[in-house]
Amino acid sequence: MKRFLKISALVWAIIIFVICIFAALKQTAVDTSIMALLPKYDQKPLLNELQEQQTAEYANHVFIMVSADNKQSARSAVNTISSELNVLAGIANLTQSVDSSSTQMDALYPFRFALLSDSVAKKLQIKDYDGPFQSALNALFSPIGAGKADPIKDPFFLYSDMLLEQKINIQVKVEDTLLRLTNVEKPSYLLVLELHKNPFDLPTQDRVMPVLKKIQQQMDEQGIRVSYSGLLLHAAKGAEQAKFEISTIGLGSLLGVILIILLVFRRIIPLFQVLLPVMVGCLVAVAVTCLWFDRIHLITIAFGAGLVGVAVDYSMHFVCESYLYTGVAVVRKLFSGLLLGLISSVLAYGGLALTPFPGLQQIAVFSATGLIAAWLTVLLFLPLITTKNASKNKQRPLPAALILNRCKDAFPTLDMYPKMASVLVITVGFISVGLFFLATPQDSVRLLQTSPPALLEEDQRVQQALGNSVNSAFLVVSGSSLEAMLENEERFRRQLDSLVNDGTLADYQAISQSLPSLQRQQQNIALVTQLYQAKLDAYAHAIGLSDSQKTLAYQSLQENQQTLSPETWSTLAISAQWQDALEPRSTGEYASVIRLQGHLSEATIRQLQADAAADNNINYVDQVADISATLAQYRTKVAEWLFIAYGIITVLLFFRYRLDIWRVMLPPITGSIIALSCAVLINGGYNIFNLVALMLVFGIGLDMGIFLQESRGGIHTWLAVSLSTLTSLLAFGLLALSQTPVLYHFGIIVLPGLLVIWLLSPLMQTSQLETQ
After folding, report:
1. 8 A C-beta contact, residue 592 and residue 508
2. 295 neighbors 40 (Cβ within 8 angstroms)
């Protein structure tokens, strides 16, 4: 038998090595986008690409807003801050100044007849020539001047009118080479840091954040307000919080586990023996998932590893029993219990693969393969490395086991009170069903926000000054060519203009406001020609132009009918935020983003969604709403599968335990209900992370009941169950103290859930076990 075990262990080791080698050679990419968790039929590659682009634009930039009571102080502060930021050369590029705006805007002058403002174009389309005529006269005789006015080359001041509209739509203008923010009360200027690496890169955070904090502190002492916006700030705050929790909760948990192992086994080696199967399980799970899928998601690794942690049960039972028996004897004694535990857990977790959600499918494959690998490691490796446990202490129960069993035996069992047991089962059943119907689900992704309110307010202040919406919604316009995309956008803008005019929508920014389609530009030239034909004579008479001057004006119109090409427009500063729209996307389509400004009411959102749905070239995108909807779909599927898993496993275990099935199932069901009730009472609802934690509670609780039933009062079984519960509480339950929402929602379930199961399990055992 031992020789067979050695050969099997060698074969298993080779299989692990081969799987890991193949996985490493494949070099599967790690996915971090939560949108990748959406079902494939819900995803549009073009929208994903645009969403990732929007995220990347924000992710790698730090926007710095410098405000002061007067312009001179603000400009001086900008120069000082720029000098301070020079130490970040090699880590980030700094943008604080650009070419003069007047030079940039003058470049549009040759296209003045093609680039009409929307207001003038609309008047000319309805042949309202008196409007531009009167406006031109008013501007010409106005005491404050008319900007770049030339009564011969541009008698109706179409260029000045177009510039005025451009400036209204731009929240950042160039003022003496500096970037001046126009959407704030106090004089404010903008600096932009473009990071060379991902904002989650810890060395980048360590280099950049001290510099930013020092600048903010120095400027604050001088009465200058410096505000930041960028993912780097949030990532650094999250990393700081994670470091604190690792050094407190994580270290406390690890020390607690080590202390317990030392107290019970009086050696540190059992800690390695307990953790080895879990580590092998996670390693094989990562490798198999990488081989199975094209990409592996970080969420899969995080939650999958937690679920594989159930395997600590298997190794804990083996190590405890190894103090009484040899490895081969322990395998024979525990095999049926380990097999039932494995089957029930694999059914509970592996069934998630049947759902249409890629994220749940990955977690199913990860947890199922991880548990199987851990189970094989317990059966094949542990008998070979736990021999010293048995040889030195054979037939000597651990003192901790004797103490715990005496405490357990002092508790009454429910089969001594059958009526009470029946009432308990029925009550738990009603509460279980009622809880899921009455409890409020919480699916907003904002629940996962880890940044403090002050940092969020500062971020929003800068984004609002930049003219970016405080909401996450935007519109995507697509077309088979750049010209088609611009025409589609211009057509849809009529609906947006209606919403702006009636006050439903604050405003919006679109590329076609700055770069009209070729079709629109040619229409504008035709409209201007009609305006000249209708009103130039009257205009010339009103201001006293001679016939030769009037002829020059007509000649200027004929000579300046060129249209603005995307190539020329792309060289101007005003094109900076739209450069990506000029190139085809990976799908071959052209696409641009219409940025919506101001707060969107529910009615406005519904209107925009309806308008977009009616046009095949328009898509309404709200990343926050999409992610929240994804979380809701996952929550529903996990809840459904939890019910199904409980039902299937109850039927499966019924064939083994018959009428004693309640002794195994009641503790995990009761523990799950009480844990979920605690979460609902404390947080006002439950979410997907609570349900995933319930799966862990279910797995550990089920193993607890199975092993207690299978052991028939084995002296080390209750010790193993207690140690497994205690180490799981330390590893997962203490996460309830975390300030990181995902970890907190996981811990708030595991802590009360496992505690209740551990307290209930002895009550469910039959008083006849020891005599059977």
Report:
1. no
2. no
Highest-confidence range of 38-47, 66-75, 240-249, by mean pLDDT? 66-75
Query: What is the C-alpha end-to-end distance of the chain, expressed in Å?
Result: 29
Give me the sign of the Cα torsion angle 570, 574, 576, 580: negative
With a cut of 70, say whether residue 771 has pLDDT above it.
no
> Measuring CA to CA, which residue among 600, 699, 737, 622 is closest to residue 250?
737
Helix (H, G, I), strand (E, B), or coil: what is residue 597?
strand
Q: Is residue 485 a contact partner of residue 587, using CB atoms and an 8 Å limit?
A: no
Residues 6+ apart with CB under 8 A from 8: 380
Mean pLDDT for the chain? 83
CB 74 within 8 A of CB 67: yes
Token pair of 603 as six digits: 């009615």
Dihedral angle of Cα 720, 721, 722, 726, to the nearest 10 degrees: 100
| SS3 readout for 436-465 | HHHCCECCCHHHHCCCCHHHHHHHHHHHHH
Question: What residues does 485 pair with on adjacent strands?
Answer: none
SS3 378: helix
Q: Report DSSP state, residue 129.
A: -
Tell me the range of 180-189, 647-656, 727-736 where mean pLDDT is highest.
647-656
Cα–Cα distance, 28 to 478 (Å, whole number): 31
Per DSSP, the three-state class of 356 is coil
**Token pair recorded at residue 115:** 């680039």
pLDDT higher than threshold 70 for residue 40: no
| Alpha carbons 766 and 712: distance in angstroms, whole number | 9
Q: Can you say how many angstroms the Cα of residue 669 is from the centroid of all Cα atoms in its chain?
A: 31
